[in-house]
Design goal:
Blueprint: H1 7-13, H2 15-29, H3 34-47, H4 52-68, H5 74-84, H6 96-101, H7 103-123, H8 126-135, H9 143-160, H10 166-176, H11 183-199, H12 203-211, H13 227-241, H14 244-252, H15 255-262, H16 265-275, H17 279-293, H18 303-319, E1 324-326, H19 327-330, H20 338-350, E2 356-359, E3 364-367, H21 372-402
Antiparallel strand pairs: 1-3, 2-3
Pfam family, one: RPN7
Domain PCI: 203-372
Protein name: PCI domain-containing protein
Length: 412
């Protein structure tokens, strides 16, 4: 049996059939309302082939239903408008007023989800709170709504200890408002990113974020972090990861971060003494801060690592200018004994952070400095030898060619 021709072909062959089909689909469409009716009418419009009158009529009915039904939606109305594509005249245009009138409905749904999130947050059910906050994205009608969703997600992620996603959320929040964020929000985002980088042990990025945090933070982010925390976390991360020029420009000469340091005099003294090479005082401040840091929920697991990095940097800076160093005299500067300092120096030498050797018997560190004069002579002699070898090769080849001893290609 040959396959049946498509509906459009049959309608094209018989106008009477087309009229009958028109009555049938009109009657069928009248049985439905809302989204189902619009979907069926669009299907008719898409499959009536070369019957433009039928297509136009189906699109008109779909348009009227898409903006006149209680279950209609702006998305469905826009889909019908896009299918019409301006072919039915000025009456069948996008009803922007009706589409905008549905915003209060979306706003009501968004507010309900936010209130549910707030309720779950108050009850301590943080995953449920995060789930409801995330759903508000589908009902957001302004960039401020989306920004609020990201800020809530950042708060919950931090409280859950899920720090790896926080920098990504911070970037999304910064891009939401097209760089028109208020200064308080910017400060919150910087502090949140700094905390996330600290938790993931990326101390350099953490230092950057904390030192860029604005004074507008104040007590506006007290659910997450206090201004004193910014000074402590930022100061220690900077000492452990910044070089001297960065420490000078991003910390000591940073007007905004200077005000945070004023809140914690011990950290301010620590930073200034480290930069001024007053290492005995610097070690004293570190010991003074340590008990409180070990009780800090975010800092406690990083104390030993950061202290080790800061101490090693101090030892390297101290020994760098000298040809030799008496460990017995230096040990009190670093609040330790000569044997323990020797072990620290041996580890730094093994890690190739200090170029030196240790006289363990006399407790003296000797710097190993390259003899630049001898090294220069060595390089000159090596260059001369290479040049001489090259000249001899050229002369040999010239003589071979002169006497007809050129290489001949051998055929296979």
């Amino acid at each position: 049996m040959p396959p049946s021709p498509p509906t459009a072909t049959i309608l094209h062959r018989c106008s009477g059939c087309a009229a009958a089909a028109s009555l049938i689909w009109r009657r069928n469409a009248a049985r439905y309302t809302g989204r189902t009716r619009v979907s069926r009418l669009l299907f008719v419009a898409d499959n009536c082939g070369s019957a433009p009158a039928m297509e136009a009529e189906a699109l008109r009915m779909a348009y009227d239903e898409s903006c006149g039904s209680e279950s209609a939606s702006p998305a469905l109305h826009r889909a019908v408008f896009a299918r019409i594509a301006g072919r039915l005249g000025p009456r069948y245009t996008l009803d922007q007023d009706w589409a905008d009138a549905t915003n209060p409905i979306k706003e009501g749904a968004r507010m309900c989800l936010n209130e549910l999130g707030d309720l779950y947050y108050a009850l301590g059910q943080l995953p449920d709170a995060l789930n409801n906050y995330a759903k508000t994205h589908n009902y957001a009608t302004t960039s401020e709504h989306i920004l609020q969703m990201w800020m809530n997600a950042i708060l919950i992620r931090i409280e859950l200890g899920m720090f790896t996603q926080v920098p990504h959320y911070v970037v999304n929040a910064e891009q939401t408002a097209d760089n028109n964020l208020d200064r308080i929000t910017v400060a919150k985002l910087q502090a949140a990113a700094g905390l996330a980088y600290l938790a993931t042990k990326d101390y350099r990025f953490a230092a950057w974020k904390f030192t860029e945090t604005g004074l507008e933070l104040g007590d506006n982010f007290s659910k997450v972090i206090a201004p004193e925390d910014v000074a402590v976390y930022g100061g220690l991360c900077a000492l452990a990861s910044f070089d001297r020029s960065e420490l000078k420009s991003k910390v000591i000469d940073n007007y905004y971060f200077h005000h945070f340091l004023e809140l914690v005099p011990e950290v301010k003294g620590l930073v200034n003494d480290f930069f001024a090479c007053r290492y005995a005082s610097c070690m004293g401040y570190l010991e003074e801060l340590k008990p409180n840091l070990l009780l800090d929920i975010y800092m406690h697991e990083h104390v030993e690592t950061l202290y080790k990095e800061i101490r090693h940097k101090a030892i390297i800076h101290y020994t760098l200018p000298f040809i030799y160093v008496d460990l017995n005299r230096v040990a009190p500067e670093f609040k330790t004994s000569a044997p323990l300092l020797e072990k620290e120096l041996a580890a730094l030498i093994t890690e190739n952070k200090i170029q030196a050797r240790i006289d363990s018997h006399n407790k003296i560190l000797y710097a190993i400095r390259a003899d630049e004069r001898n090294e220069t002579f060595r390089r000159v002699l090596q260059t001369c030898s290479e040049f001489e070898r090259g000249v001899k090769s050229i002369l040999l080849r010239a003589n071979l060619l002169k006497h007809g001893h050129s290489r001949r290609e051998v055929g296979l």
